[in-house]
UniProtKB/TrEMBL annotation:
InterPro entries: ACP_syn_III_C, Thiolase-like. It comes from the Bacteria. SUPFAM superfamilies: Thiolase-like. This is Beta-ketoacyl-[acyl-carrier-protein] synthase III C-terminal domain-containing protein. GO terms for molecular function: acyltransferase activity. The keyword Acyltransferase applies.
Amino acid sequence: MNGLSNEEVWTMTTETVHISAWSLYQPDNEPIRNVIQEAKREGYVFTRDEAEFNQEGIYTVAMEKHLTHLQMIERVVEPLIEKCRKKGTTIAEIWFAQTSMVAWHDRNFFKSALARWGLEHVPIYALEEYSCSSFHSVLKNAKIMLEHAPNEAILFIGCDKGRHPLDYVTDYVFVGDSSSACILEYGKGAHQLLAVDSKHDKVIYDNDEEKIKQAYQLYYLHIRQFVIRMIKQNGLKVEDIKLVFCNNMPNFVWETVARTTGIPLSKFYRPSLHTGCHMTNSDVLFNLEHAVMHEALAPGDYYFSLTTGTGGSFGCALHRYCPPNHTDQNQGDY
């Protein structure tokens, strides 16, 4: 999926927070063979070979070779700002997430763009410390804010761009470049937020195998508790969950979550893993857009979004897909 794509529904009115619009950018893909070779030249020692990655459905990595970090952000933000202007939607806060290392002089790269967007007085909150589970941290905070200011909206931006061959590799999964943005509003949008929570579990600072094993057990137990609690509190059963939109972490992560929650692994939906690989804070939206465009979701379906990140972080949200009708959806180009 190259270039810009949007999904928007502005007419739905329900008394909860919704994802009302999003915009995504994924650059061209690079075969993992090339990424592996570049990393080896820099001294990285892999514990797995290309064939093993292929067995997990990992073939290519999204790599941006032309646009700057700011240009990637502009690519996804500007269409949403224009739509907000046309609809009279007020953006009250901007939340920004990234996991890539940024030089000190790049940390204020929003400054020039904010004035051009007419948002120079809008506060920006950065969530670098939440790593790849920032999406749910933003949803959790947005729910609180928008319930007290229902006539305003929040703009969430996620963007990552590697600067060095080693930025793209780990022992378990490759990390791809991408940018994404979405508008969160109260009572407007096809993707209704029914419940959300996020957490930082404890961190192990030594190499005690028993402590590490216990930490992993508790980590997955807490994810299970989030999922089961949200299902029960909303009067649902596990069987009522149509799909789980997770970030593109290694297979063993979601195999464990499926086993502990009772949700079949076949419902864990992450097609973007096969092209862009793990695109940090954009995975969920890329996977959700794929499902909408390929009609994997039907009106009224309940679904989860799940993210896991470094430092024992994870997030979970229960959503309902409730478009007013298919003709009200204005899909972008793919």
